[in-house]
Amino acid sequence: MPEVHDRPLGVIVCAADPAALDRLVPPGHGARVLRVAPDEVLAVVAPDFADDVRRELADRVAALDHDALVLDVSDGWAAIALVGDDAERALSYLSALEAPAADGFAQGDVARIAAKILREPDGLLLLVPAYGRDHVRTRAIEDAGAVEARA
Amino acid sequence: MSMLVTCPTCGRRPFTEFSFGGELRDVVSPDTASDFERVYLHDNAAGPQRERWFHLLGCRRWVTLTRDTGTNRVEA
Amino acid sequence: MPWLRLDGRRVEIHDGDTVAAAAFRAGVRTFTRSLKAHRRRGLYCGTGDCANCLVTVDGLPGERACVTPARDGMQVERETGWPSAERDALAINDRLHRFMPVGFYYKVFARPRWLWPVAERVIRRATGTGTLPPDAPTRRTPTRFVRVRTLVIGGGVAGLAAAATAAGEGSVVLADEAAPGARATDPAARDAIARLTAEARAAGAEILEQHAAIGIYEGPAAALLGPDELVEVEAEHVIVATGALEAHGVFPGNDLPGVWLGRGAARMTAIHGVTIGERVVVVANTEEGAHLSEALRATGATVTLVTGRVLEARGTRQVSSVTVLTPEGRRAFACDALVLSLGWAPRDTLLRMTAEPEVVGAGDVVRPGSTLAEAEASGRAAARGQADQPTEATSWPIAEHDGYVCVCEDVSMHDLERAWDEGWTSSEILKRYTTATMGPCQGALCSRHLAEHARAKGAAPAARGRTTARPPVRAPRLGDLIGGVHEQVERRTALHDRHVAAGARMDHSGVWLRPGTYGDVGEEIRVVRERVSVMDVSTLGKFLVAGVDARTLLDQVFPLDVGAIAPGRARYLLALDEAGYVMDDGLLAALGDGSYFLTSTSGGADRMEAWLRNWIDRLDLHVHLVNQTAQLGAINVAGPNARDLLATLTDDDLSRAAIPYPGHADIVVAGVPCRAIAVGFVGELSYELHHPRGRSEGLWDVLLAAGEPWDIRPHGLDALDVLRLEKGHVYLAQDTMPDDHPAKLGLRWAVASQKETFVGKRALERMDALPLERRLVGLRFDGAPQRGHPLAVDGAIVGRITSCAVSEAAGGPVGLGWVRAVDGAFPDQLTAGAVTATVSPTPFYDPEGMRLRA
After folding, report:
1. To which CATH superfamily is domain B4-74 assigned?
2. Secondary structure E strands in C257-407
3. C317-354 pLDDT, tens per residue?
4. Which fold has domain C250-341?
5. ipTM of the prediction
6. Which listed residue, of B44, C58, C328, C676, carries a Cα 20 to 30 Å from C763's Cα?
7. Cα gap A73→A127, rounded to integer Å
8. Is A13 within 8 Å of chain C by CB?
9. Of residues A75, A89, A134, nearest to C490 (C-beta)
């Protein structure tokens, strides 16, 4: 049975022309870049580096699209980690989506909430709108057999 | 259960991830008289139909596609 | 030796027994009483296809005894017949059947009208199978999702061969309904299954035992019901290998206990070692039937094998003789068991449910009567994309003049003839009128007979087909169906725990959980009107609209004059659809750098985002839209002392000069950066503080603490409802209908008609040229009104109350409602029951709006 953990994360949105985003050099600090739409990128990173990543993104994209918008939207997202070997099986109780490849992501319906799924070394990460955190946690525990992380 | 809709960003997904935007129609009418037709009178074809779908639970973008209303198959 | 209890009596269980095998061995012959006539019914199909053996197992009704493995300590009860299945008082129905022809209940009890509800209750009591215990545990079956290249339904030879072959092409899941070990009745079949199972597993196929496919849907997709789970499968290919059962024989006496279908008899004999009778007659028109006799002889019974047509079976509690028209003429035989192998009925319900080309059949279901080798070849061919097409058996027991066609629902040939004569002349209509095929077996036995009957009567081609196949194929429990469905998403604000700790009654408001009240609605209203209060409005839709075309987008889409909103100002925003109807409302604030902040109703946020993105796309505009609904919390500080309270927490200028009405400013409250928006929904001085969601709890706590000098308390939705009503503000979907354009709601002022273009403009022009037929109006009552109550003029209903409340601030009961014009004029006095309603201008409270502009 996988464990459910809250993973505080920094999330930066970068909205710009698709052509600009195609050429955008990803920021550092271990940020994962998710191309969630042709005109939108989400950068996901450890909270301590959110500000650095925001600045890096803003500088880089401004050169490619002067009208681009870069915003720290960390408050808008909750990241729930399913930790354990059976994380994928647990996901199958919450979603028809398949877990993504190692460095990719999937986005779609998880427990009827719009979510992104990322693969982590220790399991899977579900990135959901902040208001959906409790809902997804409850579904993971009640339906997917996950357990609360031991403190 | 699953009529599958193709989203260019996210792939083929169950229709339950989308909200349906109806038949594709013109954005504007030249005058008041033709506006009634544009808004209310739909072709409602039995067969391939151009439609708008919004990927509500995915990328949250619109897609225009062709669906055969008889077979419910969406063109790839 | 393990045992179970059947109606209280101990019954021994042998190794591998089903409930039916154990019971039969112990002498039980009557398993159920039929639905209407309460006739004795015994084991018939033995393969889980018919409904003759439904029993209650451990409190749960509707279990098929012939496929339920018996377990030590099981409590089994027969669920039909009163006081017992053996001695049923209602067996008299069978004698009275002449007075109860098909559909009699529609005619006999139709008049007098009052009799029908009484009669219906009695009829319901007398029929039905099983009782649900009132304390049945609530069970929600886990649901999981599987995506696979090939789904095979059926674990016989054809299915296993298909799985083994398909596994070479990609992932395979095979769903096998049968309990382990329950399948093969002869050694050759057992060997084939063992060999193919090993091959399939070795090739990587996943076999789900005891999982029944209950439906095939678009996709193709299928639902598999297992003992502890429901599996929703998305597959690229589906191979249905569900096999066939013997054709149901229709003749007088065909439903007597002791009449068996061949494979059921074979199972009982070969797998469970049960002797089904001493003198057995086997009527076999199939090859397989001939082999049955051998297996039966091995039990020591005297077996007579004949071919031909069964004319009649006789007996009282069970069969005692049968008459067969053989090639040599009529022959009568005494017997205590009659085994029928008259032809094949493929289990093709799943196949008939879908026209998707990716769903194909293999084995008996498309080629009934296949040998083992033929079935295996058929399975492999299907996996290679060369599936056999369905063929029906050539010999079919044409329905006789009498006998039970639909055994589940007690519909005889006689009933079908009578119904046809009454004018129900198509298979679909016959089904609905007689209820044939509508019982627990869902036409597994009789759907072909029904279609055949229509054909024989000369029905037109469109009226004589098999009735439409629909899911579910097996009866799932309610708990199986609700397991994975969570349409009720529960969105929570960051202040959820605070509300709960404060004793709030949390309500489902659309997809959100919101506090209805903290305990005293009246006090909550008063504190807003007289002092200061806070409300969690984090659920509001919030959007940042930026980019070079931001203003163009908003101007094209919304009916307000966007250019007239100076930085630092805000405007009430109406969202109209292309028909000119009000879709949503909110606020639009100009941020000063060319970007805008837009709020919508809580329930309308997703639709607003979709709406805006649609126009960005269709108008090809460069706009960056960020949905900030989740990211920002919002707390409304409202009341005459709102400014005083906030002044203790901020050095920023809170005066009207700095924050105009309607307008906004960025301020810092107790260290939390906020966008303070001056709003007027509740009609008091208000600051709606939009802030980072992560700071919500801290901000809430600080506001409540700083508000103590004014005896602050928070207010919830119940109070909000009254407060906004006192100002005459509409609640969308409560006070409005989907076809309300602004004029109907008195919101014409929010439309800048002089604008050249906006969504819905042409529609509004068209509707403005027509007289207004319906309006939303304010109402004052002389008594306590009821929400939803019709409004009448001279006894004729001309409207309805949509919102109402007894209001201190408004000086009495007030409300909103819609009224229709009568003879071109809108009435101003109406009645709502005993109460008089007078049309009244709104707002009811502070009509000049002095309080909120303070």
Report:
1. Folate-binding superfamily (3.30.2270.10)
2. 259-261, 279-284, 302-306, 309-315, 319-326, 329-334, 337-341, 344-346, 359-361, 404-406
3. 899 999 999 999 999 999 999 999 988 899 999 999 99
4. FAD/NAD(P)-binding domain (3.50.50)
5. 0.97
6. B44
7. 13
8. yes
9. A134
